[in-house]
Amino acid sequence: MEDHTGPKILTRDCQAIRIPSGETFMLQKDTMVTVTQALGGSFTIATAQGLARITDENADALGITIAPKPAETEVSTEKVDEQAVWQQLRTCYDPEIPVNIVDLGLVYDCTVEQPENSPAKVTVKMTLTAPGCGMGPTIAAEAKAKIENVAGVAEAMVELVWDPAWNQAMISEAGKMKLGLI
């Protein structure tokens, strides 16, 4: 896997999301940025204004080529593999922490409802590492979009919840190892 971290000069104007406020803003062509994290198809960058997130749709502005997304097809009624949903959730990352939201312990519940011969609805309850984090809607929207890419899923709903409050004990062993906590 190619390492996309390091200094970059934007090749065009592009939209970014300020971390941690979640505010959308424009970065100008020729702006010098440093990619600090490139995980799950999004990029955390350091700018003169602070940290920001650039989504895969704007990766080309960083000089990074992303594989094209498959063409949208009609939603199938095949039985949804719940593990495939969890695998998609494992491709979502907090932009400030290099651990996916599952191993970070942010996903509290994942329910697949699928009547026979019908597409599925997936409901996820997740939290954030801090209640005031403005990135919550961005992370939840990314999780929703990725779940809806799973075969047989017609709709996903991702709800941010605050009970129980997140703490470091919720991080999986793999997450703790990645963070150097064990």
Strand sequence of the main sheet, in spatial order?
1-4-5-6-2-3
Radius of gyration: 17 Å
Number of spatially distinct domains: 2
Give the name of the CATH superfamily of the largest domain: Fe-S cluster assembly (FSCA)
Mean pLDDT figure? 91
The rounded distance between the terminal residues' Cα atoms is: 25 Å
Considering DSSP H and I runs of 4 or more, what fraction of the residues is helical? 10-25%
The number of helical elements comes to 3
Task: Output the keywords.
six-stranded antiparallel β-sheet, three-stranded mixed β-sheet, 182 residues, alpha+beta, 3 helices, SH3 type barrels, single chain, globular, GMP Synthetase, Chain A, domain 3, 30% strand
Structure description:
By secondary structure, the chain is α+β, with helices and mostly antiparallel strands. It has two domains: 6-62, Roll (SH3 type barrels); 82-178, Fe-S cluster assembly (FSCA) (GMP Synthetase, Chain A, domain 3), CATH 3.30.300. The chain has three helices and nine strands; from the N terminus they run ββββββαββαβα. The protein has helices at residues 82-89, 136-147, 173-178, and strands spanning 6-9, 14-18, 24-27, 32-39, 42-47, 50-54, 107-113, 120-126, 153-160. The strands form two sheets. Strands 1-4-5-6-2-3 form a six-stranded antiparallel sheet, with no helix packed on it. The chain has a three-stranded mixed sheet with strand order 7-8-9. Strand 7 and strand 8 (120-126) form a beta hairpin. The radius of gyration is 17 Å and the shape is globular. The model has no long low-confidence stretch (mean pLDDT 91).
